[in-house]
Amino acid sequence: MRSQWLFISSMLFLLMLGCAKPIVSADYTKFRTERPASILVVPVVNKSVDVTAPDYFLSTLTFPIAERGYYVFPTYLVKRVMEDDGLSDANLVHSADPRRLGKLFGADAILYITIEKWNAKYAILATTVEVEFHYVMKSAKSGDTIWKNHQAWVYTPQNSNTGNPLANLIVAAINAAATKAAPNYMPLAMQANINAFNPPHRGLPAGPHLESFGKDQGDF
Question: Are the beta carbons of 71 and 132 closer than 8 angstroms?
Fold first, then answer.
């Protein structure tokens, strides 16, 4: 009996190993060839119904990219310069030649982001806040895509337990209504950026302003 259990356990372990998904690293060949030092974040394309989403999201981008060791052009100054140059529409900016944008600002790479979701789904007892973003970075020299990422995050507030079932329902309904009235997207947006730029194998390799620049090939 013991030998049978050992055999079954061994087979289950091997099966679990076979089902485990290996970490697949992104292809950084073009990124390392380009070796960008400065990144231009252009206006965000917004596919959500919230017209304020692009401005809020832009405010979360500079810090996490700079922390990876890159110079990031001031996002709102970039937006103003583009408006003066006839590129006030984000869709036009995303369809413009990256090499033109690179020459305009002297940037090494252009970061394009599309907001796919920025909404709050209301239910009587819970409101779910959702964000989803596509990140694409292109070379300002060749126009080629050198890095991309995708992030989707969902948050549903946890309701406290008062010990009274009726009171719990009332509290849940109030919390859901409050979240619907003023959903807080910023923590989700910041978490999405951290998870896009930082993790090994899919984030941004260390930039020239970090000591680990050029030394993290094993992780990227």
Answer: no
Phi/psi of residue 81, nearest 5 degrees:
-65, -40
Q: What is the architecture, at CATH level 2, of domain 25-122+129-154+184-197?
A: 3-Layer(aba) Sandwich (3.40)
pLDDT one-digit tens code per residue, 150-202: 999 988 765 444 454 433 433 344 344 444 444 578 888 999 999 999 999 99
Bridge partner list, 149: 135
Name the percent of the chain lying above pLDDT 90.
58
Residue 30: name the closest of 108, 123, 129, 130 by CA. Answer: 108
Q: Can you tell me which residue has the tokens 């919230």?
A: 50
**Per-residue buried b or exposed e for 164-186, using 16+ beta carbons within 10 Å of the residue's own CB:** eeeeeeebbeebbeebbeebebe
